[in-house]
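User: Good morning. I'm curious how alpha-D-glucopyranose would be positioned relative to this chain. Could you predict the structure with it bound?
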Amino acid sequence: MYKWLLAVLLMGVVFAACNSEKKEKQTTADTEAQWWKEAVVYQLYPRSFKDSDGDGVGDLKGIISKLDYLKSLGVTAVWLNPIYESPNDDNGYDISNYRAIMKQFGTMEDFDALLKGMHERGIKVIMDLVVNHSSDEHEWFKQSRSSRTNKYRNYYHWWPAEKGKPTPRYSLFDVNHDAWMYDSVTNAYYLHYFSRKQPDLNWENPEVRKEVYGIMKFWADKGIDGFRLDAFQFAAKDTTWPAFPVGYEKNFSLYYAVGPHLHNYLKEINTEVLSKYHVMSVAEGAGNSFKDAHDMVDASRKELNMAYAFDAVDLAKKDGYSVIKLKEIFTKWDSAFATNGWLSIFLANHDQARLVTRFGDDSPAFREVSSKMLSTFIMTMRGTPYYYNGDELGMTNIRMDKIEDYNDVATLNEYKHLVATGGNIPQFMDNIKFSCRDNGRTPFQWDNSTNAGFTTGKPWLKINPNYTTINAAAQDKDPNSTLNYFRALTKLRKDNKVLVYGKYELLDKNNPNIYAYTRTLGTEKWLVLLNFSKNNISFDVNEWIAPKNTPELKISNYKVDKDEQTRHNYVLKPYEARVYKLSY
Ligand code: GLC
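Assistant: Good morning! Here's the predicted structure, ligand included:
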């Protein structure tokens, strides 16, 4: 704890020193150009993207039919959520065969065609690598649970019941949150940090690691371009199973992340696979401190390229969030990677409710402008943007009323848990309308035909009824749509390296409504102004811009009055975003 506090204070001092606008010499962090730094990554949730065969579930042929749409977005990489064989307890995050495609999604031939089609369009493919755990239906686990002497026994963590109950561990998804599941076949408990159908693999066993490297090579040999390491910060366990303090589950990550040999495993992954194939790598989770994050992604350590930190996405709550805090978080992370390492920028993914509902305002009056403003933010920050499918349309939370309509294993088990323990169900039902992951997983809204053009069958998850007005076909035709605005943003980022590599500096950090920053590369300086509120807010840039400067407006989600540009004293409309190139 103490070290963490010290690190934060130190970064604060460093940041304050760097944040002076007077400072002339602009240094760019980690200037070595890399495709994955310049990439715009589009996260595609295959189950919900496009169904080609009418079974109500999205599939690979469906994605293939939309390759030109992906190209039209201007994204340069696609991260596919898991497409491997899986009983779907956690929608593909429980893998029963790492070298096969989930039947509902198609075949390996479909995958090869998909990869080829992406590459032909200049889009790289990043695969989800889920190896903290497998499915309990994986052959390894079937063997492992069959007898204590089976050669796969040590592929997982087992605790013999005759030794009594194991040291408590918290499970995120289990009905009773106990991560040790009793299995009568061998009178022992196995460990599962997620659902009981997701037993944790034993990374301490070199055989397991060898298997994983084999799997990674299998996909790398096919020509994929990167891996996203799912929940990998939890892979290394202290197998002496020390007791954690009471209430540890409230800070799960502090006790579970970056276990004893994690960095050795990451180095091994790099030596055995990543370095040989030049594929990019990004970890879900960045540990608990800058040091943890750095150690994972500092190029000189030869581990990974990037990691995601969750502080920002965790900030949005039902009753709002502090813009000052949001600025603090992004600024803190930027300063952490000011000289080496690289970061990921995101505000939404398949584990979160919708971007505009959580961070913007999805009411009819502000949905479009606030979606555009948030997209502007994601696409003008330093770091690689990860942009979640459907956000380019400004898709919103569906807010389902009935528990029967939900699919997410975490939500359904928590509901059962609350029923069993007499928890507050009405409050829970109210909360999940805002936060449940299913909100971000409703099928993609292609057009206003039946089922939003997603499927001709019965969709696996309800479709948001607002598809009749919020859909890709309608937005494609409208030059002012959120979709076309997103396309303009990807182009802007690709055409202007200052938005990729330029130094980031926060302006007016205590302003509770406006997020303003500059990006500077060499002699080029850009200014980004974002109004995070639903009110008109005046913002005077004179303090930061030389009086003679005539900023050139590069993009905005409103029509901007020409005069204003020379005045430097702007009135930003609700959720207005403006990006200026400054002439120096
Ligand atoms: C990651 C995934 C999430 C999944 C969990 C278990 O957090 O993003 O969707 O449920 O890992 O694999």
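The pocket of alpha-D-glucopyranose is lined by residues 90, 93, 130, 194, 230-231, 284, 350-351 (CB under 6 Å). The chain is about 35% helix and 15% strand.
Let me know if you'd like a different ligand tried.
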